[in-house]
Design goal:
There is one protein chain. By secondary structure, this protein is an all-alpha fold. It folds into two domains: about 190 residues, MFS general substrate transporter like domains (Growth Hormone, Chain: A); about 230 residues, MFS general substrate transporter like domains (Growth Hormone, Chain: A, Up-down Bundle), CATH 1.20.1250. It is about 80% helix and about 0% strand. α12 packs antiparallel against α15. The N and C termini lie far apart (about 50 Å).
């Protein structure tokens, strides 16, 4: 019997593809509170146990470090087993995390709960972003932005219920029941996830995207990878510090309980800012992702990183005014959230999607490095007596990354794609007698 060539997978409708994005968003929304609602629990934990603010915030750092630094391992399992199994496991650990926190009578147990949450959220986040990258290569920025936006804006739906339950029933009860609810929702949604088969999707015609699927080893040997890694740290630090410390900053600036009225809605400045920030954070990811699909990733990075740096500087200058605190914190989160859509999309554009889980997993570890800088914000504030010093340092990091986007990253990526295109042309014309190692090609491209 003559062997027949393998048939291409049948094309899928846009409805099928968008269903995958919607399911991913649901999972991200359910996982978001572990990071974005954390600031609501810190004062209650401190009041109950008398632990120092810095020791409690160490739990947040542990969560972020575990979430990010285990992502390469999770990426390996994503590429091997697909999204369904990994997200279901992530849902279990996400729910377990807050259940453990609800019983935590010591800092050690609180840290264990944070580490479990890092595993769970890491599984959910990495898998859903990876799935979006693969389903929509021609709209990669938008698809990843919408998915990551679910994580950024998801907690806006639950900020008030969580805050109300903390005040009515205590933070332990809130941890327990929201933990069970969030975990169950993620597990249920995971049953609908799957990856596209080969030839079911088409590449972008507007953004340069590699034809090569780099392995992890090949990707990390390219200078462009480490430029993106450094830029990731520079831009994500300020936002992480705001996420973890916004309640503390509002308290120290004297605006935490001050009423603010907008369009007939009156709330205390902090919960109002928390809701607005989550919405802006969520809008940011698909908005800037969509823009990057049309004008390029590097130009979009420059605009967003500059906006974040300027917003942080203005927050340090005018944050004592409750209305300005509300507006400027929203501006910072609008400009910060896009890092999670732009860097993941740029990584897939640069290195392909076959090993995207592992490659972006290592790139995402930059968030873990940034998380280690979060407790240093408290130390720097205590040493200088003002948050202005901390905010100016993070703003400088943002503005430096903005300049690097145009002056360093853009020309490096241009050389990278040009070199790969030339190698592909030569291979098609039979000018090379053997395969060219991808790592060597990439190193030349980015040298």
């Amino acid at each position: 019997m003559n062997s027949q060539p393998a048939a291409s997978a049948p094309p899928v409708s846009d409805a099928v593809r968008w269903t995958q994005i919607v399911v991913g968003i649901v999972c991200m929304v359910a996982a978001a509170n572990i990071q974005y609602a954390w600031t609501l629990f810190v004062p209650e934990i401190q009041a109950t146990h008398g632990w120092t603010r810095a020791s409690i915030q160490t739990a947040f750092t542990i969560f972020v470090v575990v979430q990010t630094w285990l992502t390469p391992i999770e990426g390996y399992f994503i590429d091997k087993y697909g999204p369904r199994v990994i997200v279901a496991a992530g849902g279990f650990f996400t729910g377990l995390s807050w259940v453990v926190d609800s019983y935590a009578g010591s800092l050690g147990m609180l840290y264990v709960g944070s580490a479990i949450g890092g595993i769970g959220v890491g599984c959910v986040y990495a898998t859903c972003v990876n799935n979006a990258l693969k389903w929509f290569p021609e709209k990669r920025g938008l698809a990843v932005g919408l998915t990551a936006g679910g994580y950024g804006a998801g907690s806006a739906l639950t900020i008030l219920p969580i805050s109300a339950m903390i005040h009515s029933s205590g933070y332990q009860t809130t941890f327990f029941w929201f933990g069970l609810l969030q975990g169950a929702l993620i597990i249920a949604a995971s049953l609908f996830l799957r990856m596209p088969q080969k030839e079911q999707v088409k590449a972008s015609t507007k953004v340069a995207q590699t034809r090569r699927d780099y392995t992890l080893g090949e990707a990390i040997r390219t200078p462009v990878f480490w430029v993106m890694w450094a830029m990731f740290i520079g831009t994500v630090t300020g936002g992480l510090m705001a996420v973890a410390q916004l309640g503390v900053i509002a308290h120290d600036l004297g605006v935490k309980e001050t009423p603010v009225s907008v369009l007939g809605l009156t709330m205390a400045a902090l919960p109002f800012a928390l809701m607005l920030d989550r919405v802006m954070n969520g809008i940011s990811r698909p908005l800037f992702g969509f823009i990057s699909d049309h004008i390029g990733r590097e130009a979009t990075m420059f605009v967003a990183f500059t906006l974040e740096g300027v917003g942080i500087i203005m927050l340090s200058r005018f944050g004592h005014d409750p209305m300005m605190f509300l507006i400027l914190s929203g501006m910072v989160f609008l400009a910060w959230g896009e890092v999670y859509s732009l860097f993941s999309a740029t990584s897939a554009d640069t290195f392909g999607t076959k090993h995207a889980g592992k490659i972006y997993g290592v790139l995402y570890c930059a968030k873990g490095v940034a998380a280690l800088l979060v407790p240093m914000g408290n130390l720097l504030m205590e040493a200088t007596g003002t948050w202005a010093t901390v905010l100016y340092v993070t703003a400088t990091m943002d503005l430096t990354a903005a300049a690097c986007a145009l002056l360093v990253l853009k020309p490096m990526l241009a050389r990278h794609h040009a070199r790969n295109a030339e190698l592909a042309r030569r291979a098609e014309q039979g000018e090379t007698g053997h395969a060219v190692p991808v790592g060597a090609a990439a190193g030349t491209a980015n040298g």
